[in-house]
Structures are given as structure tokens and as C-alpha cells.
Structure prediction request, 391 residues.
Amino acid sequence: MRRPLLILGVIASLTGCGGGDKQAPTDQGATKSPPVLGRPAAAEDAARALGFPAFATKNTTRVGGGDPIADAAGVARAVFPAQTRASRPGAVVLVDVGDWRAAISATQLMSRPIRAPILFSEDGELPPASEQALEQLEPTGADRAADAQIIRIGARVPTPKGLKTTTVAGTDYATLAAAIDRLQTAATGKPSAAVLIAAADQPGFAMPAAALAAKDGIPVLWAKRDSLPAATRQALETREQPRIFVIGPKEAIADSVVDQLAKLGAVRRISGADPVRNAVAFARFADGSFGWNVVDPGHGVVFASAERTADAAAAAPLSASGSYGPLLLVQDAASLPAPLESFLLDIQPGYDKDPVRGVYNHGWLIGDEDAISVTVQARIDALLEIQPVSR
Prediction:
């Protein structure tokens, strides 16, 4: 039976799942304990227990899980509050948290028409955070996926009882990615015109692909640094000269692999020298209808740690709903990288006479303070804030 819960309380209840004891205050004076609803003014911890500024500031909201399992559960509940049938997902994707490549590829199924958020399993079981979120989400059945309520990615994932389940099978990450794309193609009735090729051995460079796959239904297929898996080649050959976008520098996917891809379609590389710069380049990039093209104010953005790869898949539903927006990365929890700060300054909103007539940015932060500190959150908040423009 679905229990009605306010979304603030839901995300709060998932914050510590899998993350150990997080109750001690941090050196910034914030607390890692989850926000509590309904704390009376007379309570000794009335202000701190509300969870601000870690839970939210005026321009940011945090899904503060201690690990990607909890983050995925919190994001799924934020995107699908599940208080009415219309606010429940048709299906939920289950994927093993250790299989980050399959998880990133599976974000394609968050796009229309299936619209399935990701929950993680671990060691063949559903952790409490995933189990509770699945119970609360109560998927209705995806009519474009044979009314499946659960889409299992690979053989390591458990099969929940009492829910109609379909399985995407594959022998490795490359065959799983191709099989996920076939499911999406069957649901939409035609293959996507564009394909993303990500680095199978460099997770930091692959992470930003998850957000665009979730928004646009573009497959994320895989290449090793010096070779192209047979399953990836076969998936490309089923399309007629697709537009192929390689994400990451030649250190992640060599020029020789790009040359192989060029025989299968029109290829462009999108890259930065490190995961932070690479994510910024991907956020800025546009080629016709492909890409985020975030070069001006008025956008959603999502922030995650490059050290927590599976958070890319966990966060993807936020890039495909609400204010939408690309995934950006921090490398160190305690500092905002200079290239990312410069990008946020470039897209900072401004107003002439009245801020009410302006446009606004909003940021989602993924993970607890071990992923992104409250100090960094405060700086991001300031960079997202609309500013008066002097003439």
C-alpha cells in the first residue's frame, strides 16, 4: 500500500541510507542529519533540524544520499512524487550499482515514451533505500514496454515479487547497451538519429552522457581507448549513417577508434582535458538539434562528484524533467573547480529594472557533503543568483 509522504520528508528519509552514521555536525556548522518536518519552535534544534542550507538554498536543492543507491532513490521520488496515478512512473529500471556502464546506458529509458527512473540493486538484492522507493513509486506499467513495471538490466538484478518484469539481457556492458537501445527503439518506433559513444575505461569522461541520454532518448554505446566492441559496431550498423558524437578526449577514446566510427556515420568529438572541463564542454555543445547548448542564462543544472560514477545515472531523471539541464562535475568536495565557476559566471542571469521579469537558473546537487560540501553549495548558489546589470 502506498503511503502518502511529502517529498521533503521522502528525500530526507533516504539521505542516510547506505551511508553510515551521518549525525555529527560538520565544520561548516551544518548537519548531515536529514531535514525534519514539523519541528516546533521550542525544540532545541528547531532551526538546524530543518536541514538548511545543506538540504536547499534559494537556488539549489540537494539530494543528499550517502551513496548512489540512496541518491537514485531520492531522485526517483523527487521526479515521481507518486501521490496520484499521474505522478507515478510507468516502469522502474533496476540495475546493479557496480555496473556503472550499464547504468549510464539505461538512462536512455528515462526519456519518452517509457520514462523509467533508475533504482540500484547490490549483490543480487534490493537495498532498503531501493526497496522502500519502489514500494512508494508503485509503477503503473509502461504501455510502450509491454506493460512492464520493472525493467531489469542484466542477470545480476533481483526480480521483485508481484510486479510485471522484463529483462534486458547481455553478456557484457557493450551488449547490454545495444539491447537497451533496441528496447527504446521498439518503444519509439524508430532508432534515434544520433548516438553517443562514451569511454568504457574512463568513467569521469562518460558521466555527462547520462543526462542527455535521459532527456533525448539517445543511446550511450561504448568504446575502449584503442578498440570498438563488436556489439557497438553492430548497433551502429543497424542505423543508416547515424550522427555519432564521441564524448571525451583522445586519451579516453583514441583517434584510431574515431576513424573506425567515421566509416559508420558522421562523427564529431566533444571533449575537455579532464572530467570537469569535459562536462562543461558537453553542456555548451550544440550541433543542430543535438546537445544542451547551455550558453546563456535560464537553465537547470545538475552537479555531482566525479568520484561517484553511479551518481550520473542516479541523477539523470532530473535532467529529463523539471527545469532539465546538463550534468556538471566537481573533482574535490571542498572546492569549486575554476572551469566550472567560469562556466556558471557565463550563464549567470541578470536584470535591468525588475528581477521578476528576468530568467533564473536552478541547481540540483547530488550526494552528501562528502560529495559536495556546503561551502561549495553556497558558492554555487551565489553564481546561480540573478544579479542587477549596471549600465
Observations:
- The radius of gyration is 20 Å.
- Residues 7-388 form one domain.
- The CA atoms of residues 82 and 88 lie 4 Å apart.
- The first helix runs from residue 7 to 15.
